[in-house]
Each structure stands twice: as structure tokens, then as C-alpha cells.
Amino acid sequence: MSVPVITDPAQLPIAFEHALNAGDVDTVLTLFAPDAAMRTVAGEFITGTDALRAEFGGTVAVHGTLTNVRRHTLVGAGSALLVNDWTLEVDTPGGGRTARTGTTANIARRDPYDGTWRFALLNPLGTA
Question: Is the pTM of this model over 0.90?
Fold first, then answer.
């Protein structure tokens, strides 16, 4: 497992995309603050490492491929708002691929001890 050090919050969605597309759930989880939360594309609100691991593991299991396009990054002293358009392609049970798209408004926090930016909230509002 490679633990990325993110010193620019705009790089956080890129690191997330690369780790998820590589199927590296352990590295994906290092990008989250210990108390992070996520609203899933299905609208469920999840917290905790086990729930996040299950969510991302499910995406990896269906060969998910994520593409992020940055819209805005607003940075404060210790927090940032990261707005990205995203597309997630996954395998379907019939052997094809399907895609979902949306715009995510994520909150990141800078760790006061090591300076690394991590997700505090992932909010991928999706469309069909």
C-alpha cells in the first residue's frame, strides 16, 4: 500500500481516482479522515472505515472506473471545498458496462499534525 501525502487539496480527488481505478481500497481509505462520512450515490449516509471499505470494495468488484473533472477548489486555513464532475463506469450483470455521472461537493481537512489533506465528507450527488 502506498500512502500518498497530499499537500494540495486539489490533488485529493486525483489521488482518489487513481487509487480506486487501481483497485487499491487500502490506499483509498488513507485519503479519508478517521471521522469521515460519505453520502453514497444511492443516497445512503455512511461513516466508519468498515462501511467505506465495503462501499469502495463493491465498486472495485464491479471493475469501477472513475473519472473526475475539477470544477472548483476553495481553500481556507484548514478546510477546502472540492467540486468535481465525475463519471463512474461499472460492469453490469449481463456483461456490459454502464455509467453514472454527477457532481460532487466534497469537504477536505488538513491534518494539523502532518499537514496532509484528507476527505472529511464525500457527497457524490449522482444522476442516472
Answer: yes
